[in-house]
Amino acid sequence: MMITINKLLVLMFSIFSVTLLTYTFFIPKESQIYRLINYYDFALCLYFLYDFLKQLISEEKKWRYLYTVGWLDLISSIPVVAEFRILRFVRVVRVIKIIRSIRSLINFISQNKKQSLFGFIVFLVVVLIVVTSTAVLYFEKDIGNIKTAEDALWWTFITITTVGYGDFYPVTGLGKLSASVLIATGIGFFGAIISFVTDKVNNIKANN
């Protein structure tokens, strides 16, 4: 199986998903932070499910894929069954095997620098969104007005899309610091999207 930017993203998000899963072992299940992480885990599972369907469609021998490793990919993409989450470790191992050739990985990145860079930016943005929103909820839950997972999600969405706070805003020093990181992340990400799309359009025009 050839290396693609999607496989790199699947690898990075799989490792990140396992990291989040490991973290949930150390926090109370009734906490708002646990609830917030579950929301993000659900979003990651949607991406894993998309990857599974894409892989299934591209396979010539679909039943062989399903009977060998496809079923693992499928059930590890189900967010509502906590017992299946441990299978994310299997996904990490599988993707690592796909790109186990360091030379092939380096060649792919060197030949697709812009795509690879954009992929790494997307991954970094997702990580920063999860980290900053979790941090704000942790720092603000006892003092500010960001007290629930839903509050944190709404604050994150408004902050990264409008560079403003809306109805919810941090009042602690560390909360404000986390907000500053998120605002900078939003500005940088939208700038990267514009640059990436512009480059794609220019390439299409040049080829025509």
Description:
76% of the residues lie in helices and 0% in strands. With 208 residues, the chain is mostly helical. The chain has 2 domains: 1-110; 112-200, Helix Hairpins. Helix 5 packs across helix 6 (113-140). The longest helix is centred in the C-terminal third of the chain and has 35 residues, at 173-207.
Number of helices: 8
- Choose one word for the global shape: flat
Radius of gyration: 19 Å
Q: Please, how many domains?
A: 2
Low-pLDDT parts are none
Question: For the residues shown, what is the average pLDDT?
Answer: 81
Main sheet properties:
none
Oligomer: single chain
Q: What is the percent of helical residues?
A: over 70%
Strand fraction equals under 5%
User: Secondary-structure element order, as H and E?
Assistant: HHHHHHHH
**How far apart, in Å, are the first and last alpha carbons?**
31 Å
**Count of β-strands:** 0
- Quickly give the structural class: mainly alpha
Pfam families: Ion_trans
Membrane topology: Multi-pass membrane protein
Keywords: Ion channel, Ion transport, Membrane, Potassium, Potassium channel, Potassium transport, Transmembrane, Transmembrane helix, Transport, Voltage-gated channel
Domain Ion transport: 8-206
